[in-house]
Structure formats: structure tokens, C-alpha cells
Amino acid sequence: MTTGTLSQPTLVLNRGWSAIATTTVRKAIGLVYTGAAKVIRPETYEVHGFDSWADLGVPPGEPTIRTVTFKIRVPEVIVLTRYAGMPAQKATFSRRNLYKRDHNTCQYCGARPGTSELSIDHIVPRCRGGRSTWENCVLACVRCNSKKAARLPHEVGMQLLRPPVAPHWTPIMEVPIARVRQSWRRFVSERYWEVPLEP
């Protein structure tokens, strides 16, 4: 049983089979073992408790979890047995999420110089009453930020590439695209996969 396998993501569905989050394989196994969740076999939609999942065996080439006495398939999707709610969809306004929303790109010139060369620009400067909100903050490279300074974009002939808005992310979008499992597409609306993720 490798640490790498146990830290891989597992998709979590609520009792109504709506995707609500991801967790690690380690935590997913714990939830299934205690009865708080069941494993879904993505190709057939069969639902299994811990014992029946362990009895399935592991097809050749499938990732496995090995213990001293047996091995079981890695659960890619689990469904909670009691929780039917949905998590809040509103993204927290933070530096990290602002960089993610703007894809590490200057919103004035389109440059991607690296995070150390980007800063947060207030479209309406704070000295002129601008607030720190999704709609008033964008990433700007050092050159564009210096050019704009404490003025409005139109006052210096600058224009935003796109209007800044609050993002609408679901918890699964926190998973890097390289770690998203193909089987999840059976349970998550296609629109979630169209949201670009930062590299």
C-alpha cells in the first residue's frame, strides 16, 4: 500500500448522487469502512459496502490498495449514505483564488511573467474609493501596474481583457486536471470540465 495511491483523489457524491467534493483515497476507505459512505463501481453504477467491495477482486492493471492479508481496488467514486446537502458554491476572495481566476495573466496586456512579477491591481484605486472585491481587483504585470498607478484604466488608455467577476467553482475543481479521473465524467456535468485550471 503506497502513500502515493492513498493520497490520490476520490470523488464524493451526496446521498442524491450529486458531486460535492473530493477526498483522498485514504479518507474514502475510512468512510466506507465505517458505513458513512459506499463505493460506486463507475462502469456499472453498482453500490458496494466495504466487504462487498473487497470481495470484488482487482482486475489486471487496476490501481490497488494492498494490506498484509488482501488487496482491494482503489475507490474512484463514493456516495455518502446520510448527507444530502450541497456545499457553498461561492469562492473565497483571496490572493490565491484571484491568481487562479485570472490564470496568472496580466488582465491589461495578457502577459504571463510568473507570479513574482504579478500584483493585484484595484481598477478603481483605493485612494479613490475602490474596494477589494472580485469586481474591482485584477492581476497586473509590473509594467502595466506602474503605467496605471493610481488612475482609472481609461485615463491612461488601458483596457481590461475581460470584465472581472466572481468565479463559480465547485470543490472538485480544486483538483489539478492531471489528477481528474476519467470515471468522474459519468457523475459530473460537462460544464465543470470547461472551467480552465491554472497549470
Describe this entry's structure for a reader:
This protein has helices spanning 3-6, 25-33, 50-55, 95-101, 142-148; strands at 9-13, 19-24, 37-41, 46-48, 64-66, 71-73, 77-80, 118-122, 137-141. By secondary structure, the protein is of the alpha+beta class. The protein has two domains: 3-87 and 170-194, no CATH class; 95-156, DNA Binding (I), subunit A, CATH 1.10.30. The strands form three sheets. Strands 2-1-7-3-4 form a five-stranded mixed sheet. A hairpin with a 5-residue loop joins strand 1 and strand 2. The relative contact order is 0.17. Mean pLDDT is 84; it is low at 190-199.
Keywords, separated by commas or semicolons:
2 domains, alpha+beta, DNA Binding (I), subunit A, 199 residues, five-stranded mixed sheet
Give, in spatial order, the strands making up the sheet with the most strands: 2-1-7-3-4
H/E order of the elements?
HEEHEEHEEEHEEH
Number of helices: 5
- Determine Rg (CA atoms, Å): 22 Å
Low-confidence stretches: 190-199
What is the β-strand count?
Answer: 9
> How far is the first residue's CA from the last residue's CA?
29 Å
Shape, please?
Answer: elongated
Question: Which structural class is indicated by helix and strand composition?
Answer: alpha+beta
As a percent range, the share of helical residues equals: 10-25%
Q: What's the main sheet like?
A: 5 strands, mixed
Strand content: 15-25%
How many domains, in number, for the residues? 2
Average pLDDT value?
Answer: 84
